[in-house]
Structure formats: structure tokens, C-alpha cells
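Box 3.1 A note on notation
Throughout this textbook, protein chains are presented in two layers. The first layer is the amino acid sequence; the second is a C-alpha cell string describing backbone geometry. Keep the layers aligned when reading.
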Amino acid sequence: MDSVPYIFTGYEDENLCESPAELVNCRRQELELIAGYDLVRSALSKDAPTVFLFDGSLIFWHLEAKEAEVKQKFLSSYLNSLQQFYESNLLIAGYISMPKSKEILNLIRVALCDFVIDDNQNHKLVDHLVDSQIARFYLKPFTRTTIFKNYSKITEYYPKHIHPHFFYMHVGNEIARIEVPEWIASNPESVQLVSNIIANQAIKGRGYPVVLAEAHEQAVVKGPDRDFFYHLINKIGIENKRVKTISQKSRKKLGIGV
């Protein structure tokens, strides 16, 4: 297990996002999907059932309110990666811990209002709930709900065969939200395989997929690596007669004792 660092100057995309952090988030998801596809392909030679667990949603909410240029650039890249999974028949699932979604709740709200939302206050009885709390009422450990199709506005850009679907699954300690493209959602055997692998991973990880926990550990930038990075930046700056500046927030972080 290892991790691969990337350094971006930002010059090529500096006008796309309002802040460098937003740009980093968009680029990171792009690289995670590409790396995941390559890893799953390389795992095929091991002749074992394999699923790429993406840490987060396959519904790219963060692009919904972005400018058209940003949405077009990154969404086309994300969807291209999902298309590659589809064409290669490689399983992919988005794993969301402690989800706050309210799509099932919305169905209950409509039912309580007898399908008449206007001037009907009955739905307020359940407004404080989220889907995971509702699912916990009836899901036993390592079972799942039925599959739902998502209709958020951003999914209008998805081709039909990779349109995101989701279900909730009891993974031992919590209710997780699992998202899969339509081509997987419409295949009961694929859904069962995804569920089995997630259950196996959650058992090994005591309530959270061990593979995601290990990936998080690899992604953490250790102190020596961070020090080396700043040393390298200083060295490059001196060679190019440039002065490195650092924000006050970063100064505070570097100065905090343990």
C-alpha cells in the first residue's frame, strides 16, 4: 500500500474556481476515480470478486452550483471515468458514512400530507428525521433497503446507464448509504456482490470498511513529508529568486505544540 502525491501550480485552472481549496477538491475526485479504475483493472488478474469503493457520493453535488465552465470540465471527466467502469464491467460503489440525506423522508412527508403539500402541516411531525434514522427502525445488521433512483438536478447530465441509484445498508454500527450506477442497480447479482463485499469489509473494520480506513491512513500527510515539501519549495524559490509566503492560518498550525 502506498500513496502518490501531486503538486498543482494552479495556473492552468486558476480562473475556474473561487478558491484553491475548491479546485483541489475537484481535481482530487477526478484523480481518485482514475486511480480507482486502474487499481480495479490490475486486480482482475487475482481472479477474486472486486469492487471499487469510492469514499463519497457518485452524485457530484459540489458541481451543482458551479459555473458552467467548471461543471463542464470536471463533470465530463467524472462521467468519463464512470463510463470506463461500465464498458469494462467493473463494479463501483460510493460509500457514505453517517449520511444526512432525506429522500426517503420526503416520501413519508408526501404520504402524511396525502399528496397535498400546500398548506398542509402534517409533515412537520417527521421533519427532524433523516433517512438513516428511518432505515434503522427496520433494518437488521448487514441487510439493506430496496434500491432508489436519485432525481437531483445534477443527475440530469448523467447518461441513463450510469444514472446514480442508492440504497441504505446496516453495516453493524451505523446505517451507510451506498450509491451505484444504473447498470449495477438493475442487476440483482451485482447488487448482491457489492452488498456482500461491503458487509465483509465492515465486519473486518468493526463497523467501517477496512479498505477505506487504510486508504485514509495512506492519504494523511505525515509531519516529515510536510517538512520535506516546505524545504523543497524553499529550495526551488531560492533557485528561481522567488520568496515563499505563508498564510497566518498555516503559521498557527505550524506553531501549535502537541
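The chain has a mean pLDDT of 86. The radius of gyration is 22 Å.
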